[in-house]
Write a structure and sequence with these properties.
With about 100 residues, this protein is mainly alpha-helical. The chain has three helices and no strands. The longest helix has 27 residues. The termini are far apart.
């Protein structure tokens, strides 16, 4: 495998994990930050935009999953995939915790 396959594994995990909060908030009818909000990432976007953003994350994550050739037989690709999911989940948990305190 090439180096970019491993990078794709990491970002596949990140994009697929980022799908979850936007999808859940969107289908629940809640406003939630997206990169398209004013100001970007801080303002609240509509539920419909959150669902659209969620499915874009899902699409990109699935494409990267294939490019990265994530496999249960290859522990490195699987570990990088999970590391990407853990990294974005942790970063966003701190980011949104600060947002909710304001």
């Amino acid at each position: 495998m090439n180096w970019y396959n491993y990078v794709a594994c990491f970002f596949a995990g990140a994009f697929l994990a980022n799908f979850v909060p936007h999808f859940v908030h969107g289908i629940s009818g809640d406003r939630f930050p997206t990169p398209f909000a004013r100001p970007p990432g801080k303002g609240l976007s509509s539920p419909t935009l959150n669902v659209a953003w969620a499915f874009l994350n899902l699409l990109v994550g699935c494409l990267l999953y294939r490019v990265g050739q994530v496999s249960y037989d290859n522990y490195l690709t699987l570990g990088l995939f999970l590391a990407g999911a853990v990294a974005i989940s942790t970063i966003l948990s701190f980011r949104f915790a600060q947002k909710m305190r304001q």
